[in-house]
Write a structure and sequence with these properties.
CATH architecture: 2-Layer Sandwich
Structural class: alpha+beta
Strand order of the largest sheet: 2-3-1-4
Shape: globular
CATH class: Alpha Beta
Bound molecules: ribavirin triphosphate, magnesium ion
Largest sheet: 4 strands, antiparallel
Number of domains: 1
Number of helices: 7
CATH topology: Alpha-Beta Plaits
Helix content: 25-40%
CATH superfamily: Nucleoside diphosphate kinase-like domain
Radius of gyration: 14 Å
Number of strands: 4
């Protein structure tokens, strides 16, 4: 088992639904520790930069508009196999395909408004954590 860190975002729809604490509770019960955290209303530039890998995809503009439609809560999570464990807690991208009991099954409304983001690899996790948090804002340092 490997101690990992991953980047998690509670998207504007879930923030609006007032389930920040519910989602944090699921992380903690699964053994993931919040090691960095902040609420932020992303600028268009910040959202485009974060999702730059999807720039050529047909859903890119809608994804960016959704991500700037309200504040998000951004956190780095640490734990054993954190990247995969977090993806399992989130469930499938489309809530229609998400397993019962996952965050997206319980709180997502559509493939666009799908409640949460999670890094998809250890390599991307490091890039995404650094995108939002200087190393001095992740604890322990
Ligand atoms: P995320 O990056 O947000 O954690 O989601 P993911 O890995 O499960 O999905 P990804 O393929 O990385 O897509 C990023 C976000 O774009 C939206 N999307 N829409 N209409 C579509 O076909 C479509 N495909 C993806 C979703 O909101 C997804 O979370
Ligand atoms: Mg993704």
């Amino acid at each position: 088992m490997a101690l990992e860190r991953t980047l998690s975002i509670i998207k504007p729809d879930a923030v609006a639904k007032n389930v920040i604490g519910e989602i944090y509770s699921r992380f903690e019960k699964a053994g993931l520790k919040v090691v960095a955290s902040k609420m932020k209303h992303l600028s268009k530039q910040e959202a485009e930069g974060f999702y730059a890998v999807h720039r050529e995809r047909p859903f890119f503009a809608a994804l960016v508009e959704f991500m700037i439609s309200g504040p998000v809560v951004i956190q780095a999570l640490q734990g054993e196999n954190a990247v995969l464990k977090h993806r399992e807690l989130m469930g499938a991208t489309n809530p229609k395909d998400a397993a019962p009991g996952t965050i997206r099954a319980d709180f997502a409304d559509s493939i666009d408004a799908n409640a949460v983001h999670g890094s998809d690899s250890l390599e991307n996790a490091a890039i995404e954590i650094a995108y939002f948090f200087p190393a001095t804002d992740v604890y322990p340092r």
